[in-house]
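Lecture notes, unit on binding sites. The following record was shown on slide 14. It pairs a sequence with guanosine-5'-monophosphate.
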Amino acid sequence: MYKMSEKPLITATQIAERLDTLAQEIKAFHPEIILSVLTGSYIFTADLSRRLSSPDLQIKFIKASSYGCSTESSGKLEVSGLEGIDICGKRVLVIDDILDTGCTMESLAKILNGMGASLIKTCVLLNKESRRTVDFHADFVGFEIENEFVVGYGLDYANNYRTFPDIWTLRDENGK
Ligand code: 5GP
Ligand code: MG
């Protein structure tokens, strides 16, 4: 069984403040299309995209399921929803919830690189640098966190906890 931390790791207020500055950083890049990786990034995407508000900024949602790391270009990543999305010649901002091993984003970037975008930049709300197993860095990072399992603000554990406004740490009953 898992237990939530007594206090949030990152509060809704802290998230809102960071999103204001993050949006300023991203605006300088003038993205034309957002590719949001469901499901974990749905709240982050909604909050961030409103801060980027621009009449010609499009938004599309894709789903990525990772089955571990692979150095081969095919990877072990299943991506759905890319059919019918045209990123050719566009400036693309990929938004995901959290960068852990980095496998998901690395494989996704490889796939997107073959689709003719003029520029692809990646944005994650959270980064666990110490967990990285591949050489991948996001262009925009909301918060750096330690090696802990987090839930809330769109992030789940077995599909629960997503609707919590703050980000919490989940530990097992022994406090680990
Ligand atoms: P990666 O491919 O970078 O190892 O994994 C990234 C994906 O694993 C994230 O998009 C997320 O779905 C999941 N993940 C990694 N760490 C956490 C975490 O601490 N909490 C939650 N809820 N999901 C995580
Ligand atoms: Mg994910």
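Take-home: The chain is about 20% helix and 30% strand.
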